[in-house]
TrEMBL record:
This is PhnO. It comes from Pandoraea oxalativorans. Pfam families: DUF3579.
Length: 104
């Protein structure tokens, strides 16, 4: 086994601090889209949007979430601040976790 520092992730949940479901229902996709980037080419018929690997939507049970990789803080600090400020400004619940790789 090697000594690796696992990436820490923040789970922004689609629940307000008082437990209400956050609206609009596509908030996670909108937030991730705001910090996404274009793949392949930036224009033309082959252009497409792709979520950042550092900010991605997911479901945890029946709750929409956005997972934010802490490494984004070093790569794009303003983007990290934007996403975290969105969670704070909208009173969304947030939890921290770390990636634990399978040990074989």
């Amino acid at each position: 086994m090697t000594d690796q520092v696992s990436a820490r992730e923040y789970f922004i949940q689609g629940l307000t601090l008082d437990g209400k479901k956050f609206r609009p229902s596509d908030w996670a996709e909108r937030l991730c889209g705001a910090v996404s980037f274009c793949g392949r080419s930036n224009s033309g018929p082959n252009a497409y949007m792709q979520y950042s690997p550092y900010v991605r939507p997911t479901m945890v049970g029946d709750v929409k979430c956005v997972v934010v990789d802490e490494r984004l803080r070093e790569i794009e600090p303003r983007m990290f601040d934007f996403v975290m400020s969105f969670a704070r400004d909208n009173g969304l619940q947030m939890t921290e976790a770390c990636f634990v790789p399978d040990v074989k």
